[in-house]
UniProtKB/TrEMBL annotation:
The chain crosses the membrane at residues 21-45, 82-101, 122-145, 157-175, 187-213, 233-252, 259-278, 298-316, 328-348, 368-387. Residues 466-490 have a biased composition (Pro residues). InterPro entries: DUF6350. Keywords: Membrane, Transmembrane, Transmembrane helix. This is DUF6350 family protein. Residues 454-499 are annotated as: Disordered.
Amino acid sequence: MTHVTEHPLVQGGRSTAFATACVRGAVAAGLGLGALAVLVIAAWISSPFPDSGAGGALHVAAGLWLLAHGVDLIRTDTLSGLPAPLGAAPLLLVALPAWLLHRTARDTLDPADPTRPRPTPGGAVGAVSGGYLLVGATVVVYSASGPLPADLVAAGLWLPAVVVGAAGAGVWTALGRPLPRRREAAVALRAAGLGLATLLGGGAVLVAVSLAWHAGAAHTAYLTLAGEWSGRAAVLLLVLALLPNAAVWGAAYGLGPGFALGTGALATPLGLAGVPALPPFPLLAALPADARGTWPHWSAAAVPFAAAAVQGWYAGRAGRDLAARGTVLAALGAAWATGAALTALAAASGGPIGSGRLADFGPVGWQTGAAAVLWGAAVGVPVACGVRAWGRRGVRGPEGAGAGGGPVVPVPPVPSVPPVPSVAPVVAGAPTGYEDLDELDGRLGGVDDAGYEPYDFLPAAWESPPRGPGPEPAAGPGPVPGAAPGPGAGPAPGDGAPG
C-alpha cells in the first residue's frame, strides 16, 4: 500500500505546488525587470548622444529595478569622481513590482482551477518570495559591474522586506482581506485607510495648487534640463513617476514637520529655514521660497485637519454600537495606524540624491508619522466621540443596561387585549325571545331539517372570545335539574339578564 505524506507547506501532499509558486515568483521578477529594460532601451535608442552601448543601458535598467525595491544605489560616474548615493525612489516605479508580486501571490493561493493543489498561506508567501529573491540576488550581482551598483546593506534589508510585504498583501487579498475579530481594531483599520487616503489626496491638491502658482518657473526648469524631444520625454516620465512622492511631501508639509531641501534647509508652513540646495527640476520649482510663511502657507493645515476629522467621523459612525471607551480606542488606533503608514511612505519618498548637501532630501519619516498621530488624537478622537453621541441621542435606558454601557434595545409595547364581555347565565324558565321553535325556524329562513347543522347557524359571537389578563367573570348558576333546555344557547341580542 502506498502512503501519501503531506508536505507541511502544501495542502494535498504535492510539493509541485510549492515549486510552481517559486517559478511564478521568478516570472514576476522577470516581467518587472523586462518592462524597465524596454523603457531604458527605448530611451537609449532615441537618444541622439548615447553615452554607452546596450550593455550600459541594461545595467541602468537593473539599477532602476533595484531602486524600485528601496535599494540605495551608488553613482560612480560623478563630476567630482567621488561616489554619490542615490536613494530617492520614484514611488510610481515601486508600484510596478509591488503589483506584480501582489497578483502572483494572490493567484497562487486562489487558482482558477479548483482541482489544482495549492500551498498554504505561509507556503505561498515563502515560495513566491523565494523565487522572486533568487532573481533579485542575480540582479544585485549583475549591477555591481555597472554605473549604478547596489548598496549591499540596503539590498539585504529592503529587498526582502518589500518582496515579503507585497506577497503577504496578495495572500491577504486571496483570503478575503480578513480583519481582526476585535471590533475596535477592525474599525480602526478602516478609519485609518480612509484618513490616509484623505491626507494623501490633500497633499496632491497642495502640490497641484503650488505648481499652478509657480507654472512659469516649472516650465523654465523643464526646458532647461533637455533640448531634444527624447530628453524631454524622459524628463516628463520622471516627473510622472515622482508625482506620488510629491503627494507625500505635500502631506508632510501640511502636517507641520515639512521636508528637508538639503542639509540644514527645511521647508515648513511657518517658513523656509536655511539655504536650500535645489537642482533644476520642474517639481522642485513649485516649492515655497518665502523665508516667512503667510496665510496661504498656513492654510495647508486644513489638509491634516480634514483627514483627522474624516477619520474620526468614520470611527464614531462605525462605533455607535460600541461603548464610549471602545470608540475612543478605535479613534486612537486609527491615528496610530495612519502614523505608521505615513512613516513608511515618508521614508520611502525621500532619501539622498547626491553627496554633501544633497545627502538629506525629503521628509523625515518618524517626524511625519508622529505629527499624523498627534493630529488624529487631537481632532479625530473628539470628532469620533461627538459623532457617536449624536448617533445615540435617541437611545435611553437604565444605568448599567447593556454590557459595558452598550445600547439598550427598546422593547415594543404589548398590544392591549379588549375586555371580555360578560355573558349572562341562562336560567330555566326565563324568556329567551324565541318561545316557539317554529318562530325561530321562520327567522332562520326555513332550513331543511334533513341537512340541518346547528353549528352552521349559531352567531359568531356565541363563541367565547380569548380570555384576557383581567379577572375571570363570575360563574352563573348551573342548570336546574329536570328543566328542559331552551332552544337558544344564550340570551338573544338586546336582552338583558333577568332581574
